[in-house]
Amino acid sequence: MTSRLVSFVVPSEFVTAHAVLTPAELGTGFIDGWLDAHGVVQVALAKLEKGIPLSDVEDRIALLLTDQYDELPDLVAELFPEVSSRASEPTAVWLFIALAWVIAGPSGFDNPQQVIDMLYADFGYPDEVEALVSYMPAPPDSESSPEAIRHRWVEYLDRKSAEYSMRTNAMTHPARPSPW
């Protein structure tokens, strides 16, 4: 788990309702602490139940019993064939999921705007959410009021939700060359 300004575990049901994760995103969620062991298994199992093809490792993860969760770190490591692929794997889906979880409010965040500002830092100051950050200038022809920021936040979530929840099998598992 990485050191962050804000940390919370997102329930697997929330994740699967908002995104179809690639194998690397599933691994990133566990490594970065967005999913606990049970959540990783449940996300993989949900893909299996929806008929989305799984990688061999995801299939093994989906079928883990609770007394086998100690095998999860090694299985998750197999989701990243090279150390460099983990370092370059985008975490944008986890930014989206975290921001969606904050706005959903089940954890009762005292100051959601402060959480957004901290997530902005935790994810390396991504341009795509700069307009949601309280201390950044508003986009041209936009207001900087809390209501305007919340409106941009909802628009961002709507746009990303459409992108991540409608992924096809090809996006989660790129076509492999035929052995024939």
Account of the 3D structure:
With 180 residues, the protein is mostly helical. The chain has two domains: 12-88, no CATH class; 92-165, no CATH class. The protein contains ten helices and no strands. Helix 4 packs antiparallel against helix 5 (72-78) and helix 7 (92-104) crosses helix 9 (146-165). The longest helix is centred in the last third of the chain and has 20 residues, at 146-165. The chain is elongated. The termini are far apart. Mean pLDDT is 86; it is low at 82-89 and 169-180.
Topology:
Elements: H1 12-18, H2 23-31, H3 37-49, H4 56-62, H5 72-78, H6 83-88, H7 92-104, H8 112-122, H9 146-165, H10 169-172
Helix pairs in contact: 1-3, 2-3, 3-4, 4-5, 7-8, 7-9
Number of domains: 2
**Uncertain segments of ≥5 residues (pLDDT<50)?**
82-89, 169-180
Structural class: mainly alpha
How confident is the prediction overall: mean pLDDT? 86
- The 3D shape can be described as elongated
